[in-house]
Design brief:
The protein is α+β, with helices and mostly antiparallel strands. It contains 13 helices and 23 strands.
């Protein structure tokens, strides 16, 4: 059955002098409406061009008020409603996405700032660093095939696959190591933003307490009868406290730098890891053995170690080995070896000359040249007054770390067509003495290159003119070293600062009594002792009557 309203719309010609429309959805003042239907609706004569709504007067006594009935909602209003609905839906979607992003970010930061996770990350990094000192780094794959064979695994399961697959032959640039550094950096940053910075913000606030009960709940509290809060403030300022007063309240603190120190420690650790990452991904390294008197170009031996390695112009520099020599102990063992080096630019101009030794490298233009090894390059020999001949010295395998070099001087009467060529053999462990054997392999004698004494072997006079050594050099460019050094310096400084105690003190003037309370994040016993010492310095107030009584007592 149609509602009364619909009945009026469908039958505008019906006479209806009074219609009660109670509706629970309307306010109380609109519970009853008087509607008069005596006036017919305009356009009801069947003309299709009339207006779409009828205006019905509400009665003779209330002719100024009208009730308007619509056949349908206006088209403009419908379009506006659709647009507003779309905007409302889009706003809800954006709001839901934003809330989801915030929840995800909050949960991620909560997980990353977890202390056990950070400890596990640092333990894993320390373990990999220790493993990198045990495993030989930067060797050829064949070296690991021999050291970690599959048919005889180390500890029963470690083979070369465990070394080469994760990149542990270059431990400090391996994806596993760099990934752990990145994860630890994220944990430190999350802890800084979620824990340390809020603690600093709270510590910087000037928080006054207006209740003596709140002050007495502090770790340290005391009441000073007949005292002044101004006198207490002066004494605290003399002890290095920052003092603030507001009406009867006082707030003081000291050691705020101790609150900033943990943030500095985190930043310093991030600097150290950033420098290590830069060293692993942006440096160059190379090794070379150069005989005395020869030279090499730096760029020819330098190899990039990472994706961020960029070759500088200094790689065009030429290095010339002017001289190589060694020093010996009294026992004959090598004690130190030196290389006299000259550096030349593209124009052939000498830009630097310096003698280096072990633990005393050469640094130029961001490149560091280290003295790391030595070798025996050639032996200058005269035979029967002819020469000198340069005989190349070959390195012979020897057990242990001791070196052994040898060369061979064929004799003229030997038949080259035969497989065995006879000649003089020469062996040396260093550059200071040469051991000689005849063509039958019998020992003949020992000669020093500097002695200039000839020796006769199989009818030939042999004179050793000089022993030419070769220097073993390591070259490296490492842009991360300054960052690492700066990080370690900041780490030591901020670690020391973090031991400073952050002490806070509150006081309230309650009549003639001063209620004092405070706390400290470290050295709590020392803080209590300091407070007792400072409070003992607060002068006691004496009233006029007490002063008069004291004067009479002293006069009597």
């Amino acid at each position: 059955m149609p509602s009364p309203t619909c009945y009026l719309i469908l039958n505008p010609s019906r006479t209806c002098h009074r219609l009660l429309l109670p509706s629970p959805r309307l306010p109380a003042r609109f519970a009853r409406l008087r509607v008069s239907c005596d006036v017919p609706r305009q356009g009801s004569d069947g003309g299709g061009g009339g207006p779409k709504r009828g205006v019905i007067p509400t009665g003779a006594g209330k002719g100024k008020k009208q009730v308007v009935f619509f056949d349908a909602a206006p088209p403009i209003a419908q379009q506006g409603g659709e647009e507003e609905g779309k905007v409302e839906v889009q706003t809800r979607v954006d709001g839901s996405a934003l809330r989801l992003l915030r929840r995800t970010t909050k949960r991620t930061l909560s997980v990353l700032s977890n202390l056990p996770l950070a400890i596990a990350e640092m333990s894993a990094i320390a373990g990999l660093m220790a493993l990198g000192t045990v495993i030989d780094q930067g060797e050829a794959p064949s070296h690991y095939f021999e050291q970690f064979p599959e048919d005889n695994p180390v500890f029963g399961f470690i083979t070369w696959r465990w070394i080469l697959t994760p990149g542990f032959d270059h431990m400090f640039s391996s994806p596993v190591f760099l990934g752990l550094l990145t994860l630890l950096t994220a944990s430190l940053m999350a802890c800084t933003f979620t824990t340390q910075l809020p603690m600093v913000k709270v510590a910087k606030r000037w928080s006054f307490m207006s209740s003596g009960g709140s002050i007495k709940k502090q770790a340290f509290s005391e009441s000073l009868p007949r005292a002044s809060i101004q006198d207490l403030g002066v004494i605290l300022m003399g002890a290095g406290y920052e003092v603030f007063t507001k009406a009867p309240s006082l707030y003081a603190f000291k050691g705020l730098a101790g609150r900033y120190a943990p943030i500095g420690v985190h930043v310093a650790m991030i600097f150290v890891m950033a420098g290590a990452t830069l060293s692993a991904t942006g440096s160059f390294k190379g090794s070379v053995d150069v005989p005395q008197g020869l030279n090499f170009v730096i760029g020819d031996i330098m190899k990039p170690k990472g994706i961020f390695s960029v070759a500088p112009d200094i790689f065009n520099t030429e290095v010339h080995v002017n001289r190589f020599y060694m020093e010996y102990y009294d026992s004959g063992e090598v004690s130190q070896f030196y290389s006299d080096l000259s550096l030349f630019d593209l124009d052939g101009k000498e830009v630097m000359r310096r003698t280096i030794k072990v633990n005393d490298p050469l640094r130029y233009g961001g490149i560091t040249i280290y003295q790391t090894d030595w070798g025996f390059s050639a032996l200058q020999v005269k035979k029967n007054g002819e020469g000198p001949f340069n005989l190349a010295m070959a390195s012979l395998k020897q057990s242990g770390n001791k070196k052994l070099y040898g060369t061979f001087l064929p004799l003229e009467d030997s038949d080259p067509s035969k497989s065995s060529v006879k000649g003089i053999s020469m062996l040396a462990r260093d550059l200071q003495s040469i051991v000689l054997y005849d063509q039958d392999g019998k020992f003949v004698g020992v000669r020093r290159p500097s002695s200039k004494l000839p020796i006769e072997i199989n009818g030939n006079e042999i004179l050793i003119e000089d022993a030419i050594g070769s220097t073993g050099l390591d070259l490296k460019t490492d842009p991360g070293i300054p960052v690492v050094y700066a990080g370690f310096g900041a780490l030591m400084l901020t670690t020391c600062i973090s031991y400073l105690s952050h002490a806070q003190l509150w006081a309230l003037q309650d009549g003639t009594t001063v209620v004092v309370g405070g706390k400290s994040n470290r050295a709590k016993i020392e803080f209590s002792d300091e407070m007792n010492r400072l409070l003992n310095k607060v002068p006691e107030l004496i009233t006029v009557n007490e002063k008069t009584v004291d004067n009479k007592s002293s006069t009597a």
